[in-house]
Each structure stands twice: as structure tokens, then as C-alpha cells.
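Pilot study result, target chain (155 residues):
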Amino acid sequence: MKPVAAALLLASVAAASAALPPPDLPEGKWWKRPRIAAEINLSGEQESRIESIFASARPVLIDRRAALEKAQGELHDALEDSDADRRAIGARIEAVERARAELQKSRILMVLDMKQVLRPEQWERLVRLQESVRRDRRERFGRFLDRRRERDGPR
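Predicted structure:
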């Protein structure tokens, strides 16, 4: 299979198979950010418990992400092979999807454990805060694109 076709197929497999995203939370160690902690009224004990959950989950997440990247690499290599066998490619796709599912499952279970540390109103504030941040980013990006179009003209 030609490299461009292989890359397109790999991208379409990834896009088509995207599982439901985990809850939309701020990236990184959001519980360590003073603004977020203050906004949701996070206690020191809650911060410690969430940090412990993250520390326990981190090695698993790293391993699962590595397994996904390995499976994706093997699929890419198989697609590059001019003698690519349909059955072998199918098996590689299934391996990628299993690895992706395991990563998603681990991440969602970690988030669930974190959610259980928070009171319901803290969780709701955290989700609303992230939605607001995303909305602001989209608006800023839209304004950036508008200014760029004005400057460069239509493409």
C-alpha cells in the first residue's frame, strides 16, 4: 500500500473508532492549579486524595499509551508493506482498538475515582469551568482566523 494511502487509512481508523471521550476536565494536574482549586473550593485533603489517585494510575496510563502507540506503529508498518494481507491488517486494526479501549477505560476509571473525591457541586463547577475555558478558546481561535482571512484574503 502506498505511504499516503496507508496514512489516510490509519487516520480514518483512528477517527472512526474514537470511543466516547472521558469527562471533559482541565488538562494536567488541575487540582494543583490555585485558580481551579479556589473556584471549586477544593480542600487540602481532597487535593491529596486526587494526587494519590493520579500517582497510582500514572504507570498504568503510561503503559497503556505505549501499547497503543506500538499497535499503531505495527499497523502503519503493515499498511506500508506492498504484500499487505487483508486478514493481517484486520488483526492489526483490532489490536489498535483493543489498546485504545484499554487506555480509555483506565483514564475514565481514574477520572471516576477523582470525581468520587469531590462533592457533586464541586464536580459540576469543575465541568462548567472547563466548558467555559473551551468556549473561550474556540472564540479566540475564531477571531484569530477572522483576522487572518482579512489580512490574507480568501484561499
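One observation from the pilot: The two ends are 32 Å apart (CA to CA). A full batch analysis is planned for the follow-on phase.
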